[in-house]
Design a protein that fits this description.
Elements: E1 3-6, E2 15-22, H1 28-40, E3 45-51, E4 65-70, H2 78-86, E5 95-99, E6 103-105, H3 110-118, E7 123-125, E8 129-133, E9 147-153, H4 154-160, E10 178-179, E11 183-187, H5 188-194, H6 205-214, H7 217-223, H8 228-245, E12 249-251, E13 255-258, H9 269-277, H10 283-286, E14 287-289, E15 295-297, H11 302-314
Parallel strand pairs: 2-3, 2-5, 3-4, 7-12, 8-13, 9-10
Antiparallel strand pairs: 1-4, 5-11, 6-13, 7-11, 8-9, 14-15
Helix pairs in contact: 6-8
Protein backbone atom coordinates (compact mmCIF):
# COMPACT_ATOMS: atom_id res chain seq x y z
CA UNK A 1 0.00 0.00 0.00
CA UNK A 2 1.19 3.60 -0.56
CA UNK A 3 3.06 5.39 2.22
CA UNK A 4 2.13 9.07 2.62
CA UNK A 5 4.59 11.55 4.16
CA UNK A 6 3.31 15.09 4.74
CA UNK A 7 5.21 18.21 5.63
CA UNK A 8 3.56 19.97 8.58
CA UNK A 9 1.91 22.36 8.29
CA UNK A 10 1.00 21.84 4.66
CA UNK A 11 1.28 24.88 2.38
CA UNK A 12 -2.13 26.33 1.59
CA UNK A 13 -1.57 27.40 -2.02
CA UNK A 14 -4.27 26.76 -4.60
CA UNK A 15 -1.72 25.81 -7.31
CA UNK A 16 0.22 22.64 -6.55
CA UNK A 17 2.67 20.66 -8.64
CA UNK A 18 2.30 16.92 -9.06
CA UNK A 19 5.32 15.00 -10.29
CA UNK A 20 6.46 11.40 -10.48
CA UNK A 21 9.77 9.72 -9.75
CA UNK A 22 10.84 6.22 -10.73
CA UNK A 23 14.36 5.12 -11.55
CA UNK A 24 14.58 1.44 -12.55
CA UNK A 25 18.21 1.74 -13.69
CA UNK A 26 19.43 3.74 -10.69
CA UNK A 27 20.64 6.67 -12.79
CA UNK A 28 22.49 9.29 -10.74
CA UNK A 29 21.18 12.06 -12.99
CA UNK A 30 17.57 11.31 -12.12
CA UNK A 31 18.25 11.90 -8.45
CA UNK A 32 20.41 14.99 -8.88
CA UNK A 33 18.01 16.50 -11.42
CA UNK A 34 15.08 15.92 -9.08
CA UNK A 35 16.81 17.82 -6.30
CA UNK A 36 17.60 20.74 -8.61
CA UNK A 37 13.97 20.76 -9.74
CA UNK A 38 12.72 20.70 -6.15
CA UNK A 39 15.13 23.41 -4.99
CA UNK A 40 13.99 25.86 -7.67
CA UNK A 41 10.27 25.09 -7.73
CA UNK A 42 8.16 28.01 -6.56
CA UNK A 43 5.00 26.12 -5.57
CA UNK A 44 4.18 23.21 -3.25
CA UNK A 45 4.83 19.80 -4.77
CA UNK A 46 3.29 16.38 -4.30
CA UNK A 47 5.69 13.70 -5.54
CA UNK A 48 4.79 10.07 -6.15
CA UNK A 49 7.87 7.83 -6.01
CA UNK A 50 7.71 4.26 -7.27
CA UNK A 51 10.37 1.76 -6.22
CA UNK A 52 10.72 -1.55 -8.01
CA UNK A 53 13.17 -3.06 -5.52
CA UNK A 54 12.05 -1.87 -2.08
CA UNK A 55 14.65 0.92 -1.83
CA UNK A 56 13.51 4.53 -2.01
CA UNK A 57 15.75 7.34 -3.27
CA UNK A 58 13.73 10.30 -1.97
CA UNK A 59 13.20 11.37 1.63
CA UNK A 60 10.34 13.30 3.27
CA UNK A 61 12.13 16.64 2.80
CA UNK A 62 12.13 16.17 -0.96
CA UNK A 63 8.43 17.08 -1.30
CA UNK A 64 5.62 18.78 0.58
CA UNK A 65 3.70 15.53 0.21
CA UNK A 66 5.66 12.40 -0.69
CA UNK A 67 3.70 9.31 -1.71
CA UNK A 68 5.87 6.20 -1.93
CA UNK A 69 4.86 2.97 -3.64
CA UNK A 70 6.80 -0.27 -3.73
CA UNK A 71 5.23 -2.52 -6.32
CA UNK A 72 4.46 -2.69 -10.00
CA UNK A 73 6.56 -3.76 -12.96
CA UNK A 74 9.15 -1.84 -14.95
CA UNK A 75 7.34 0.21 -17.56
CA UNK A 76 6.60 3.91 -18.16
CA UNK A 77 4.59 4.74 -15.05
CA UNK A 78 4.67 8.56 -15.14
CA UNK A 79 1.01 9.21 -15.92
CA UNK A 80 -0.15 6.36 -13.68
CA UNK A 81 1.72 8.00 -10.79
CA UNK A 82 0.23 11.38 -11.74
CA UNK A 83 -3.23 9.90 -11.24
CA UNK A 84 -2.21 8.48 -7.86
CA UNK A 85 -0.93 11.94 -6.89
CA UNK A 86 -4.00 13.82 -8.08
CA UNK A 87 -6.13 11.73 -5.74
CA UNK A 88 -3.92 12.69 -2.77
CA UNK A 89 -3.84 16.49 -3.18
CA UNK A 90 -4.86 18.65 -0.21
CA UNK A 91 -8.26 20.33 -0.19
CA UNK A 92 -6.79 23.83 -0.63
CA UNK A 93 -5.55 22.93 -4.11
CA UNK A 94 -7.87 23.62 -7.03
CA UNK A 95 -5.26 23.95 -9.80
CA UNK A 96 -2.61 21.40 -10.68
CA UNK A 97 0.67 21.69 -12.57
CA UNK A 98 1.74 18.30 -13.94
CA UNK A 99 5.51 18.58 -14.18
CA UNK A 100 8.43 16.43 -15.22
CA UNK A 101 10.82 16.28 -12.27
CA UNK A 102 13.87 17.36 -14.26
CA UNK A 103 12.96 20.87 -15.35
CA UNK A 104 13.70 24.40 -14.15
CA UNK A 105 11.63 27.51 -14.84
CA UNK A 106 13.67 30.54 -15.82
CA UNK A 107 11.39 33.00 -14.00
CA UNK A 108 10.32 32.79 -10.38
CA UNK A 109 7.08 34.55 -11.38
CA UNK A 110 5.70 31.69 -13.45
CA UNK A 111 3.13 30.57 -10.82
CA UNK A 112 1.37 33.95 -10.87
CA UNK A 113 1.37 33.93 -14.66
CA UNK A 114 0.05 30.35 -14.70
CA UNK A 115 -2.77 31.24 -12.32
CA UNK A 116 -3.71 34.21 -14.49
CA UNK A 117 -3.77 31.98 -17.58
CA UNK A 118 -5.92 29.42 -15.76
CA UNK A 119 -8.40 32.19 -14.99
CA UNK A 120 -9.00 32.26 -18.76
CA UNK A 121 -8.42 28.69 -19.93
CA UNK A 122 -9.21 25.11 -18.99
CA UNK A 123 -5.74 23.79 -19.82
CA UNK A 124 -2.43 25.61 -20.18
CA UNK A 125 1.23 25.03 -20.79
CA UNK A 126 3.08 27.27 -18.31
CA UNK A 127 5.80 28.28 -20.78
CA UNK A 128 6.28 29.56 -24.31
CA UNK A 129 9.80 28.22 -24.91
CA UNK A 130 11.47 24.97 -23.89
CA UNK A 131 15.18 24.30 -24.04
CA UNK A 132 16.93 20.93 -23.82
CA UNK A 133 19.95 21.94 -21.76
CA UNK A 134 23.38 20.68 -22.71
CA UNK A 135 25.22 18.27 -20.42
CA UNK A 136 27.25 20.87 -18.51
CA UNK A 137 24.88 23.83 -18.98
CA UNK A 138 23.42 23.93 -15.48
CA UNK A 139 23.70 26.09 -13.39
CA UNK A 140 24.30 28.48 -16.28
CA UNK A 141 21.59 30.56 -17.96
CA UNK A 142 18.74 28.86 -19.81
CA UNK A 143 19.73 30.16 -23.24
CA UNK A 144 19.83 28.80 -26.77
CA UNK A 145 23.62 28.76 -26.57
CA UNK A 146 23.42 26.35 -23.62
CA UNK A 147 20.83 24.09 -25.29
CA UNK A 148 20.77 21.31 -27.84
CA UNK A 149 17.16 21.93 -28.87
CA UNK A 150 14.72 24.85 -28.52
CA UNK A 151 10.97 24.53 -29.15
CA UNK A 152 7.84 26.61 -28.76
CA UNK A 153 5.20 25.16 -26.49
CA UNK A 154 2.31 23.69 -28.43
CA UNK A 155 -0.12 26.24 -26.98
CA UNK A 156 2.11 29.17 -27.96
CA UNK A 157 2.69 27.75 -31.43
CA UNK A 158 -1.04 27.36 -31.98
CA UNK A 159 -1.71 30.90 -30.76
CA UNK A 160 0.83 32.52 -33.06
CA UNK A 161 0.15 30.25 -36.01
CA UNK A 162 3.57 28.59 -36.19
CA UNK A 163 2.06 25.12 -35.82
CA UNK A 164 -1.27 23.36 -36.20
CA UNK A 165 -2.70 20.28 -34.51
CA UNK A 166 -2.05 18.33 -37.72
CA UNK A 167 1.73 18.77 -37.51
CA UNK A 168 2.39 18.97 -33.78
CA UNK A 169 3.84 15.44 -33.62
CA UNK A 170 7.05 14.54 -35.43
CA UNK A 171 8.90 11.24 -35.68
CA UNK A 172 12.21 12.96 -34.86
CA UNK A 173 12.26 15.29 -31.86
CA UNK A 174 15.16 17.23 -33.40
CA UNK A 175 12.75 18.58 -36.01
CA UNK A 176 9.78 18.90 -33.67
CA UNK A 177 7.92 22.14 -34.26
CA UNK A 178 6.30 22.34 -30.85
CA UNK A 179 6.70 20.89 -27.36
CA UNK A 180 3.87 18.74 -26.01
CA UNK A 181 5.68 17.62 -22.86
CA UNK A 182 7.41 18.73 -19.67
CA UNK A 183 4.73 20.88 -18.06
CA UNK A 184 0.95 21.26 -18.15
CA UNK A 185 -1.48 22.92 -15.76
CA UNK A 186 -5.19 22.24 -15.42
CA UNK A 187 -8.10 22.87 -13.12
CA UNK A 188 -8.27 20.15 -10.51
CA UNK A 189 -11.94 19.54 -11.24
CA UNK A 190 -11.07 18.44 -14.79
CA UNK A 191 -8.45 16.02 -13.52
CA UNK A 192 -10.82 14.62 -10.92
CA UNK A 193 -13.38 13.90 -13.65
CA UNK A 194 -10.98 12.34 -16.15
CA UNK A 195 -7.48 11.89 -14.80
CA UNK A 196 -4.74 11.77 -17.42
CA UNK A 197 -4.36 8.98 -19.94
CA UNK A 198 -1.96 6.57 -18.28
CA UNK A 199 -1.66 3.53 -20.56
CA UNK A 200 1.30 4.73 -22.66
CA UNK A 201 3.54 2.18 -20.97
CA UNK A 202 6.64 2.98 -23.00
CA UNK A 203 6.17 6.75 -23.01
CA UNK A 204 4.17 9.26 -25.02
CA UNK A 205 1.61 10.24 -22.40
CA UNK A 206 2.27 13.96 -22.84
CA UNK A 207 1.13 13.61 -26.44
CA UNK A 208 -2.03 11.91 -25.24
CA UNK A 209 -2.85 14.91 -23.05
CA UNK A 210 -2.03 17.33 -25.85
CA UNK A 211 -4.11 15.54 -28.45
CA UNK A 212 -7.00 15.08 -26.05
CA UNK A 213 -6.93 18.82 -25.43
CA UNK A 214 -6.77 20.04 -29.04
CA UNK A 215 -8.79 17.18 -30.52
CA UNK A 216 -6.43 15.44 -32.95
CA UNK A 217 -6.74 12.05 -31.28
CA UNK A 218 -6.60 10.14 -34.54
CA UNK A 219 -3.26 11.64 -35.50
CA UNK A 220 -1.82 10.76 -32.11
CA UNK A 221 -3.08 7.19 -32.35
CA UNK A 222 -1.59 6.89 -35.84
CA UNK A 223 1.72 8.36 -34.66
CA UNK A 224 2.07 5.75 -31.91
CA UNK A 225 0.89 2.99 -34.27
CA UNK A 226 -2.04 2.03 -32.07
CA UNK A 227 -3.84 -1.17 -32.95
CA UNK A 228 -7.64 -1.18 -32.77
CA UNK A 229 -7.74 -2.14 -29.09
CA UNK A 230 -5.25 0.56 -28.05
CA UNK A 231 -7.13 3.10 -30.13
CA UNK A 232 -10.47 2.22 -28.51
CA UNK A 233 -8.90 2.33 -25.05
CA UNK A 234 -7.38 5.76 -25.73
CA UNK A 235 -10.57 7.17 -27.26
CA UNK A 236 -12.56 6.07 -24.20
CA UNK A 237 -10.49 8.59 -22.23
CA UNK A 238 -9.80 11.22 -24.90
CA UNK A 239 -13.28 11.85 -26.26
CA UNK A 240 -14.91 12.75 -22.90
CA UNK A 241 -11.83 14.74 -21.92
CA UNK A 242 -11.92 16.74 -25.15
CA UNK A 243 -15.66 17.32 -24.84
CA UNK A 244 -15.05 18.73 -21.36
CA UNK A 245 -12.14 21.07 -22.16
CA UNK A 246 -13.41 22.00 -25.62
CA UNK A 247 -9.97 22.71 -27.04
CA UNK A 248 -9.55 25.59 -24.59
CA UNK A 249 -5.75 25.70 -24.37
CA UNK A 250 -3.61 28.63 -23.23
CA UNK A 251 -0.10 29.44 -22.14
CA UNK A 252 1.89 31.88 -20.06
CA UNK A 253 5.07 33.56 -21.25
CA UNK A 254 8.35 32.14 -20.06
CA UNK A 255 11.13 29.67 -20.66
CA UNK A 256 11.64 26.26 -19.11
CA UNK A 257 14.88 24.32 -19.17
CA UNK A 258 14.98 20.54 -19.38
CA UNK A 259 17.95 19.34 -17.35
CA UNK A 260 20.31 17.02 -19.22
CA UNK A 261 19.65 13.32 -18.71
CA UNK A 262 21.37 11.67 -21.62
CA UNK A 263 21.49 12.52 -25.30
CA UNK A 264 18.18 13.02 -27.08
CA UNK A 265 19.05 10.35 -29.65
CA UNK A 266 19.25 7.78 -26.85
CA UNK A 267 15.61 8.37 -25.92
CA UNK A 268 14.87 6.48 -29.14
CA UNK A 269 11.45 7.99 -29.78
CA UNK A 270 11.10 6.39 -33.21
CA UNK A 271 12.53 3.02 -32.23
CA UNK A 272 10.39 2.65 -29.12
CA UNK A 273 7.06 3.32 -30.82
CA UNK A 274 7.84 1.18 -33.85
CA UNK A 275 9.31 -1.68 -31.82
CA UNK A 276 6.55 -1.71 -29.24
CA UNK A 277 3.85 -1.79 -31.91
CA UNK A 278 5.01 -5.28 -32.89
CA UNK A 279 3.75 -6.76 -29.60
CA UNK A 280 0.05 -6.07 -30.28
CA UNK A 281 -0.38 -4.48 -26.85
CA UNK A 282 -3.89 -4.39 -25.39
CA UNK A 283 -3.94 -2.12 -22.31
CA UNK A 284 -7.23 -3.55 -21.06
CA UNK A 285 -5.79 -7.08 -20.98
CA UNK A 286 -2.00 -6.82 -20.75
CA UNK A 287 -1.84 -4.50 -17.72
CA UNK A 288 -3.58 -4.32 -14.36
CA UNK A 289 -3.30 -2.31 -11.17
CA UNK A 290 -1.55 -3.71 -8.13
CA UNK A 291 -2.70 -2.85 -4.61
CA UNK A 292 -0.56 0.32 -4.56
CA UNK A 293 -2.09 1.72 -7.72
CA UNK A 294 0.94 1.12 -9.97
CA UNK A 295 0.81 -0.78 -13.24
CA UNK A 296 1.82 -4.43 -13.37
CA UNK A 297 1.90 -6.82 -16.28
CA UNK A 298 -1.16 -9.05 -16.39
CA UNK A 299 -0.30 -11.42 -19.26
CA UNK A 300 2.59 -13.73 -20.09
CA UNK A 301 4.41 -11.78 -22.82
CA UNK A 302 8.07 -11.96 -21.76
CA UNK A 303 9.43 -10.49 -24.99
CA UNK A 304 7.23 -7.40 -24.62
CA UNK A 305 8.17 -7.02 -20.96
CA UNK A 306 11.88 -7.31 -21.81
CA UNK A 307 11.55 -4.75 -24.62
CA UNK A 308 10.03 -2.20 -22.24
CA UNK A 309 12.48 -2.98 -19.43
CA UNK A 310 15.50 -2.74 -21.73
CA UNK A 311 14.34 0.62 -23.08
CA UNK A 312 15.26 2.28 -19.79
CA UNK A 313 18.86 1.05 -19.88
CA UNK A 314 19.19 2.05 -23.55
CA UNK A 315 18.37 5.66 -22.60
CA UNK A 316 21.80 5.95 -20.89
CA UNK A 317 20.67 8.91 -18.79
CA UNK A 318 24.08 9.24 -17.11
CA UNK A 319 25.76 9.33 -20.52
CA UNK A 320 27.47 6.70 -22.63
CA UNK A 321 30.72 6.83 -20.65
CA UNK A 322 28.83 6.01 -17.45
CA UNK A 323 26.73 3.20 -18.94
Amino acid sequence: MPVYRHRQPLPAGRLWAVTSYFNPCGYRRRTSNYRIFRRHLQIPVLTVELSFNGRYELSPGDADVLVQLCAGDVMWQKERLFNVGIAALPESCDRVALLDCDLVFESDDWPAAANAALDRHAVIQPFTTSRELARDAWPGPITAANSSLTCDSLAYGLARGSTTPDVMLAPDKRVLGSMCGMAWALHRSILERHGVYDACVIGGGDGALASGTVGNMGQFADYLLFNARRRDHFYAWAEPFHADVGGDIGYCAGTVGHLWHGDIKDRRYRERRMGFAEFDFDPAVDTGLDTSGAWRWATDKPAMHAFVRDYFSLRMEDGAAAA
